[in-house]
Amino acid sequence: MTISDTTDISAAAAPAGSPPRLASVGRFMRAYAKRPSGLVGLGILLVATVLALSAPLFIGPEQLDVTKVDGPLLSAPGSGYLLGTDQAGRSVVDLLIWGSRSSLSIGVIATVLTMVLGSTIGLLAGHYPGKLGKALMHVTDWFIALPSLPLAISLAAVLGQGTASITIAIAVTSWTSTARLVRAQTLAVEARPFIERAKVLGAGNRQVMIRHVLPNVAPLILVSATLTVASAILSEATLTFLGLGDPTGVSWGSMLNAAFYQGAMTSGAWWYVGTPGIAILLVVLGFTLTGRAVEHVLNPRMVG
Prior knowledge:
Layout: H1 3-13, H2 20-33, H3 36-58, H4 92-127, H5 131-145, H6 148-159, H7 163-172, H8 176-190, H9 193-200, H10 205-241, H11 252-261, H12 270-298
Helix pairs in contact: 3-4, 3-12, 4-5, 4-7, 4-8, 4-10, 4-11, 5-8, 6-7, 7-10, 8-10, 10-11, 10-12, 11-12
């Protein structure tokens, strides 16, 4: 078979007029659809996202205001309350759905900041392996040596209570693994011949990193992002449970905080204690399954 025959076959196999990027997306989606665990994870995330985005349509401020609700205190599931009520008489279902908005948004925004910071440091350290790269890696190793949770607690406490401080604290303490992964992949990509050809043809450092290295590192960043969201949501729940979140807001971590400090645990109100924990578990599982499926699709040599 000649080269022209091979080209004709590949052209016939691809839809006429479809751009290469669209064809790549189509192949990715077909490969992803073959992984049941990935579909389960994606389904969990879709349900959580739809509920979070549509919450204002059926949950009003008066249903979350402790001064306006009139439900029974710490009532068990049933009697008009699917998952019972909290210590103020608010529906746990309403709190759970509304709390997903804060927990998911902090997890996603913190992950975006983490990916930007870690990817930038990794690209620079890999492209400039001299003094700059070594200095950046020394800073990365220093952050790795520090315990992440105490550091996040300290940062959040210094910055003050609120979602912004928690988001920044999570991002500052979570970028190191991404930086090391991106640096290693950058070094591997820059060792390939096409990078040398681009430099010979006059491509500058910025052009090499953005147009040649970054597209080849992007799949690794995508996988890292889907897995980082899960840990970011756990970190948000931990910091909010410790009282570092917005005291006036509702999130899954604040629900656990209220259950612990306002008598739900000692009263045996398992429905108020368990439901936010199960919600966190399901969403983290969804992101983990999705991330693993994406990782297997982008790297078919992985086993399992």
